[in-house]
Structures are given as C-alpha cells and as structure tokens.
C-alpha cells in the first residue's frame, strides 16, 4: 500500500531560476502533485525568481502551462490547479545585481520554514548565497537546495563548498542528486537493511560481481555546450552512479539518519581504489545516414568528450575485497534503463547432472523506466524430461504490486523537495562526500587528457563500444542486457 501522506509544515519556497527548464519540467509540476496529494499545506507559498520581466499573474500563466504540459493530470481540470496557483508569486531578480532583492525579502514570512532552490547555473550559486545573506533573507532556519553539477573537479567543488559555507551551515545545505529520491533507491536500503535474507550474503564471499547501468536513449539535446565541457564521467559517474554504488556497498548505518547514512557512504568512496586505465572504456556516439552524431550535436568536429563510460572498480575493504563493480552509462543507447544487478556466485557444488544446467541467483533492481526489484531463483523446469534447471523471476515490479496506487508514488524531485521542507538531509549529499567523489574521479579524467585519449565510436541504438563488452568478457562475465 502507498504510505499515508503527512502534510509538511507551512513554508516559503523561492525557486531561483523559476522560469528555467528544470523548474518547468520537474520542480513546479512536482510541487503541484504534492499539493494534490494533500502534503503541501494551505499556508505554503512558492515564489519564482528569475531574470525575466514578469508579474505574479504572468508567472501563474507560465506555471499553469508547465503543469498542464508536464504531468498535472486530471487535477488540471477540477479546480485544484486554480487553487494551487493562488500560492504562486514571482519576483524579477538579478542574481548578480541589486534589483528584486528587497521585493523578495518583503514577501518572506517570519517563523516558518524558508527554502531557496538554486535552479540556476552553478556560476550564480555564490552570488545568490551572498545576497541572501546581505539582504537578510537567510535566517538560521533557512535551507538552500543546490543543483548539480557541484563543481567540475575537486578544486572547484572545494571552492564552492567554501563559498556556501561562508553564509550557510552544512545542516542548511541540500545538494540534490535526484537519483537518491527514486522510490527503488530507497527501497534498496529497505531490502538490504529490513530483511534478514540478503545482508548475510551481501559480501565478496557470496557476491560474484555487481553491475550498475544507467542507459539513455537521448543524445545531448540542447545541453551540447555544457555537456561537451563535462562528459559522461563528470555528468553521470561522479554523482549518480557513485551514489548508487555507495548505497549498494555501504555498511549498515546504526540508524536511518542523515549523518549515519552519509558517514557510511563516505567510507565507501574513500575505500574505492584508483581505476587502472585498462579497466575503463570511453565512447562517443557516431552519426548515421539519417541521424547526427555527438560531434554534430555539440558542434565541435574534433570533440574528444565521452558520451559513454564503462569501468571496473574495486572497493578495498573487508566486505568487498575481490568483488568487482562494473559501472556503465551512456547516451543514445538501445533503450532507457537504469539498473543495479547483484550477481551471486555459483553454488559451491552442483548435485545435478551437467546437462541440468547451472544458474546463478541474480538480484536486479530497476530504477527506470519501471521501478521494481526482481530476484532470479533457480527451480526445476516443470514437467517430464528429468531434472533440468531454469531461472524464474520473483518479480516485485511496483506498478504490478501497487496497482493504480503506483501512480501516486511521488517522483524523485517532489519527494526530495518535501524532505527539504521537513529538514531531512538523508537523501542529500554532504560536502565531504562530493569532494571525495571528485578526488576519485579527477585522476581518471586527468589520465585521459595526459595520454591524449580519444573515445571509441559507437552506433546510436547500440549498447556502446565493443570494448565495453570486452571489459567483462575478459573476466569471464557479461553485462546484463539493457532492457526497456
Ligand atoms: P535554464 O537555462 O533553463 O534556466 C536558468 C534559469 O536561471 C532561468 O530561469 C533564468 O532566468 C535564470 N537566470 C539566469 N541568469 C540569471 C541571473 N543573473 N539572475 C537571476 N536569474 C537568472 O537552466 P535549467 O536547465 O533549468 O537548469 C538549472 C540548474 O539545474 C543548472 O544548474 C543545471 O545544471 C541544473 N540541472 C538541470 C536539469 C534539467 O533537466 N534541466 C537537470 C539536472 C540539473
């Protein structure tokens, strides 16, 4: 059953970049869905703040259109959207200037939760933090939500942490990684730490290897300029895949509390061994007769930025010594699928004839498109024909398990915004975690630059370069098929 909805406390939420793509597609529709569910209280206000000249009414029209386009559903027609829009306001503001800040300060109410969502380019984070302080908007109870990318290497991430720390305490800073807001990601913790079944087997004695795949079908789209300075390693591995790796590999925290969980994640990152460059494959999607390739998309015919990465890494601790982790992510792949796969070892001895077949237990945690968990269990093939073994899935696809109520499960952004209002940092990255992740990532990227490495081309709609398949074949393993 879907859990009860508990309304959060009244709040003032300011969305810097309130006219941007992220606000339109995710933040505003997400807030509306929380309003529909009864979680957003009647006393809440949401203020869009951006450079565009608009008044409250024209912003409400903008918000209405965004919600209708991106998932308001049936509530758009029944008057709920009109009710929601009464909570919306707008301030024209310049993050680097003086205009709009007094107006914004005048709209804030005392004694209630105050949250500032930095949905703007990272170059503006410092300017906004400083002005929130100078204009008296930042109270000890205020929180700020910071979008990715959080720096582009260790040095810039450190500098950003330092800038934010001048005006906000770490307990006020919510570094968002929307992968952590996904239902299955949290379920991963429930499965691991809420059952007796898995945790005793969750180590290198029983787990052969773990795969994490985040495959996208889209190319770089309109983000070409940014993406070409970033690449898959910075854009996906350093944050999203790293967070998934932490949750799958961490020790049980003493409590499900922010710092207990984040301490354990940090230990995983710090225990990651440097990656041997033979164990990394970079790729870049090429053009076809009908489709432009990566270099066309980013309008850089000599780009050596990767749109695909596959790598093998090891965690040097007692639990995982000897169990490799294979990570892969890329754009323009055959289907959109994010999955964590735990492949258990063979049984120590088979009592069956060789031709009965031999199978391994596989636990697959699918994050998108259909959130759910499947456990492959070996059984006898039914019917006559002697003892033949087959795999059957114990399927916990949420949509099937929950029925129509699955639609009510909040998406990652809406859940995380409500966590900000509640003051729960468990699913947000701490500053030292982000820095540790960069400390592991930087030498990999620097190595590519030093060696002048060029990514391997791969076809759009494929599973990436052949070398990525070889990465596992060499170890006598294979990637699980990328499924939609
Ligand atoms: P965008 O370019 O669509 O929007 C930027 C917003 O910032 C606009 O509202 C604009 O008016 C405002 N802005 C720009 N300069 C300003 C200034 N000087 N003063 C005040 N406002 C100013 O960007 P976006 O795609 O919405 O992304 C916002 C942030 O979220 C970025 O950090 C991005 O990396 C991150 N992000 C976006 C997505 C996404 O899907 N769009 C996903 C993950 C992270």
The CATH first-level class of the largest domain comes to Alpha Beta
Low-pLDDT segments, ≥5 res: none
**CATH topology name of the largest domain:** Dihydrodipicolinate Reductase, domain 2
Quickly give the structural class.
alpha/beta
Instruction: Give the helix proportion (percent range).
Output: 25-40%
Q: What's the architecture of the largest domain in CATH terms?
A: 2-Layer Sandwich
What is the residue-averaged pLDDT? Answer: 93
Bound molecules: nicotinamide-adenine-dinucleotide
Radius of gyration: 24 Å
CATH superfamily (homologous) name of the largest domain: Dihydrodipicolinate Reductase, domain 2
Oligomeric nature of the chains: single chain
Number of E-state strands = 15
Outline the fold blueprint.
Layout: E1 11-16, H1 21-37, E2 45-50, H2 56-69, H3 80-85, E3 88-92, H4 101-107, E4 113-118, H5 125-134, E5 143-146, H6 154-167, E6 173-175, H7 183-194, E7 207-215, H8 224-228, H9 232-249, H10 258-271, E8 280-285, H11 294-297, E9 308-313, E10 325-330, E11 337-344, E12 362-368, E13 372-380, E14 389-397, H12 398-402, H13 412-422, H14 431-451, E15 456-458, H15 466-473
Parallel strand pairs: 1-2, 1-4, 2-3, 4-5, 5-6, 7-10, 8-15
Antiparallel strand pairs: 7-11, 8-9, 9-10, 11-12, 12-13, 13-14
Helix pairs in contact: 1-2, 1-13, 5-6, 6-14, 9-10, 9-14, 10-14
The protein binds nicotinamide-adenine-dinucleotide (NAD).
